[in-house]
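Team,

Forwarding the record for the chain on the shared tracking sheet. I've put the sequence and predicted structure together so nobody has to dig through attachments.
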Amino acid sequence: MKTKQRLLSAVAALCLTTFAAQAENTVLTQFITGNDVGMVPGHANHFTAFAPELPAMLARMPEINPETGLHVSEIKPGLFFVTEGVYQSAFLETNDGVIVFDAPPSFAHKLPETIAAHAPGKAINYLVYSHGHSDHIGGANIFGEVDGLQIIAHADVAESLSKSPLPGVLEPTLIFMEPYEFTFGSETVKLTPASFHAEDTDTIIYLPGQNFVMAVDTITPGEVPFMNFGATSDIGAYMTFFDTILEYDFDYILSGHVSALGTRDDVIIARGYAQDVWQTAISGMESFYDSFNEAFATIEYKNANLAYRVAIESIRRECAGEIIDRWDSKLSVVDVWADSHCQTVILHKIMH
């Protein structure tokens, strides 16, 4: 009996080893954009299998000064755009001083010197927060010693920062709840509460005199959005963003990421992409419960969570394939993030 048990155990072990080898071989020979990215040559999802940035996107990237590590350009009289290639900020020189918009920790330590070089002799009077995430305002403490500095943020952001202080983030000194407008040195700044990304409240920053708007963590000009549509906390609210922002009269939109500034055309293109993902995923959801029931039956009704995952992945894979086919020549990094965009909509539809 023991010999027979050992024999059966050996056969079972051999079968499992063979199955594992076959599974591993499948992973290594099939490129699936939703799988882990491989950094080792020979992996099917090796990073070289993903499409490179489109030439049109690369052509838009501003030159970074090798000495400062920044790109700084005066996009409108007195309005300066700053980026290190990943994050973005801006500052406005007025007759009476300077207004700074966001302070990303990746380069905020360089802002005082940059501002002094482009607005010599002008004091920094205001720092405006677009929202409460530290990757955009976590370098604010560089301005901590500026006399009389007013730090402006929405009340919800101020409350969040008060309850859970973030390293490098200065607490707001001027707080607003309703749309807020102020004039400084003949320049007007309009701040409007919105909901498209942050857990509490976003702020749309508008400079009517410069036809310039900031809506951070929304689009990425020339590219599809970051994972889960810019890691939005509410995809339903995010989908309304495009029509809202297009009501503004602007030439440039600063969205906080990549090195390129956006235009109205970028917003329109991004809206088309988001709507296409939404409709494609929603259409795929029509077969969700059929896919779930089929998977659940196959695994003998023993693991509903696994069957749910199978159904989600099936719809996500089909959705992403269609989106990549339609958009890979129009926007960069579609194959990098399409799976996550489709899944974001799928999960929203399941819950709503």
